[in-house]
Design goal:
Length: 119
């Protein structure tokens, strides 16, 4: 189990498009929990994908939030970079239409990829 804390002391940085392409190329639907359909292909291009780079304990990490857009007030599918935790979209439910990513840049490894819960 990993505990990722976001504090005002964490240093934010902006990942570039090449790094995000590498992260997204490594994302698979295997092991996504809870409730992502087994064997179902993850259509990441259907999501609006928000990314924040941060440094924790001198270690570069990426936080992502993926949201399938619905309605006219939401941004369309694509990649968006946010500069701080305050700019991250907040969603409290949505199941697998909202997913949360934590990626370790140095280890080149997805730490966590989880669907949101249900209200």
């Amino acid at each position: 189990m990993f505990l990722i804390a976001f504090s005002s002391r964490a240093q934010n940085w902006t990942p570039d498009a090449a790094l995000i392409s590498k992260v997204e190329a490594g994302i698979k639907s295997d092991g996504i929990s809870p409730r992502y359909p087994e064997g179902h292909p993850l259509a990441i291009d259907k999501y609006a994908r928000y990314y924040l780079g941060y440094t924790a304990n001198s270690h570069r990490m990426i936080r992502g939030r993926f949201i399938i857009p619905f309605g006219t007030k939401m941004k369309p599918a694509g990649v968006y970079f946010v500069g701080s935790q305050k700019e991250f979209p907040v969603v409290f439910d949505g199941g697998c239409s909202v997913m949360n990513l934590v990626y370790d840049v140095e280890a080149e490894h997805v730490i966590s990829l989880r669907c949101n819960g249900f209200a």
